[in-house]
Amino acid sequence: MSRDQLAERADAIARRIVGSGPLAVDATSTLATVVAVVAGMAAGVAVVPVPPDSGPIERGHILRDSGAVAVLGEANWPEVKLPHIDLDAVDVTALDAGHLLEPPDSSTALIMYTSGTTGAPKGVVLSRKAIAAGIDGLADAWEWTCDDVLAHGLPLFHVHGLVLGVLGALRVGCRLVHTGRPTPAAYAAARGSLYFGVPTVWSRVCAEPNAARELAHARLLVSGSAPLPVPVFESLRSLTGHAPIERYGMTETLITLSTRARGERRAGWVGTPIDGVTTRLVDDAGFEVPHDGETIGELRVAGSTLFDGYLNHPDATADSFDDGWFGTGDAAVIDPDGFHRIVGRQSIDIIKSGGFKVGAGEVESALLTHPAVHEVAVVGLTDDDLGQRIVAFVVGDTVESSVLVAHVAGELSAHKRPREIRFVAELPRNSMGKLQKSLLR
Questions:
Q1: 172 touches 165 (CB < 8 A)
Q2: How far apart are CA 418 and CA 195, in angstroms?
Q3: Which one of 32, 171, 216, 353 is separated from 236 by 20 to 30 angstroms, measured CA to CA?
Q4: What does the DSSP assignment read for 423-437?
Q5: 310 backbone dihedrals φ, ψ, rounded to 5°
Q6: How far apart, in whole angstroms, are the C-alpha atoms of residue 259 and residue 382?
Q7: CA-to-CA dists, residue 413 to 38, 59, 406, 437, angstroms
Q8: Please, are residues 84 and 33 in contact by the beta-carbon 8 Å criterion?
Q9: Please, which pLDDT band fits residue 174 given cuts at 50, 70 and 90?
Q10: How does the average pLDDT of the chain come out, rounded?
């Protein structure tokens, strides 16, 4: 579809929905989703992307909590009866040719629901100006222009696939090739100059060297939504000739940190703040910690990309901010040059064992350097003696647990070694490939 065709179709639908309340979209990886979201943006109407794989309880909660008044497009949702607005029943030739007014920058563009790992999903209210600021900051960091061809196969109900992967391409003005599914073969055939993927995608690409080598022509390979294991970073560099760009963000902040197209790319580090964003690290008492590349603190963010609040949850919104700083709940370190490394979630990835604070990600990275380990997740389990003991869940080849424990002890401080290794067939992940450590615990 050309840009003109998309604008014509979306504007025709937008004229029918101007002034509407929130509209839900069954956010499948289809052109219909793109048309529906762009129509909502053009009309200044809040769009609620609903994950197509959500179950009836989650879906019903999203539809009721968001206050959706109708479904934009097709969807078979028996939980909540809503009218449907047909995307195809519009005669674009019969409509007024005048331009729609640009909605205010402060108006809500999207209501995106968090994964709900700590209760029912909360609606994150994202304004047009926040989305614009986030895209523009990344366009600057990545030297992303209309001459690029963006290729990815990410779901269209998350920030990564929808905001960056669709709205980003439209704002920058580049061509977008969505591969349907993010398979190595599809990525190899897309002939993009800019590729987006999550670590699971890049791991699978590296597992098919011929497909990986087809990406050598690209300009940038970008990884996000979860930490990229160092071995995958190195494999991508070896097979494609490109050290991948790593970046960090969350639904509430959009993307705030990134390495640069013309800057250093250091495996396991997510770079520096994009334009319009500032960060700080604080300890448990709220005091700033040194930027020495070692001291762990909670990452807090301020700037132009932040959300407007949690829908219907003013107390949760207030609790998440401290004097304008949003508490991400993520643990990080910052080196003297301002480079950031995300250690993990404060609540689950900082293990307090024997009086020491240990970052699960550091132990995971050490284990992944052993050839027998394919995937790993490290958690802290309650221990009467240590407070928490370090436990590693490993997917890999047959090897004695003691070998892996000794391997970590040789790579890191002795107190960071796992006290227990559990071998599993696979690790629990959500639709974006993120580990669900709460299920392991």
A1: no
A2: 36
A3: 171
A4: E-S---B-TT--B-H
A5: -90, 125
A6: 37
A7: 52, 46, 11, 24
A8: no
A9: very high
A10: 92
Closest CA to 253 of 214, 215, 289, 304: 304
Structural domain boundaries in the chain: 3-103, 138-345, 350-440
Between helices 401-411 and 360-368, what is the axis angle to 10°? 110
**Residue 419 near residue 390 (C-beta atoms within 8 A):** yes
Number of CB atoms found within 10 A of residue 105's CB: 13
Which residue type occupies 4? Answer: D
Fold designation for 350-440: GMP Synthetase; Chain A, domain 3 (3.30.300)
pTM over 0.70: yes
Rounded CA gap, 271 and 260, in Å? 7
SS3 178: strand
Burial 313-322, CB ≥16 within 10 A → b, else e: eeeebeebee
Q: In what order do the strands lie in the sheet with 373-383?
A: 373-383, 387-396, 420-423
Q: Which residue is associated with the tokens 């979209």?
A: 25
- Taking Cα atoms as reference points, which of 115, 55, 343 lies closest to residue 251? 115
- CA-wise closest residue to 337 among 289, 293, 386: 293
Q: Which of these CATH numbers, 3.40.50.12780, 3.30.1540.20, 3.40.50.300, 3.40.50.1100, describes 138-345?
A: 3.40.50.12780
> Is the pLDDT reported for residue 115 higher than 80?
no
Q: Give the tens place of pLDDT for each residue, 274-285.
A: 999 999 999 989
Question: Whole-angstrom Cα distance, residue 203 to residue 405?
Answer: 24
Angle at which helix 360-368 crosses helix 230-240, to 10 degrees, equals: 50
Q: What is the pLDDT of residue 229?
A: 85
**What is the token pair recorded at 288?**
């700033």
Residue 123 sits at the vertex; the CA angle it makes with 305 and 348, to the nearest 5 degrees, is 80
pLDDT at 360: 87
Please state, in angstroms and rounded to a whole number, the distance separating the CA atoms of residues 332 and 261. 23
Q: Which residue has the tokens 């590349």?
A: 293
Query: What is the secondary structure of 253-279 as a DSSP string?
Result: TEEEEE--TTS---TT--BEEPTTEEE
| Contact call for residues 219 and 188 (beta carbons, < 8 A) | no
Cβ 196 vs Cβ 153: under 8 Å: no
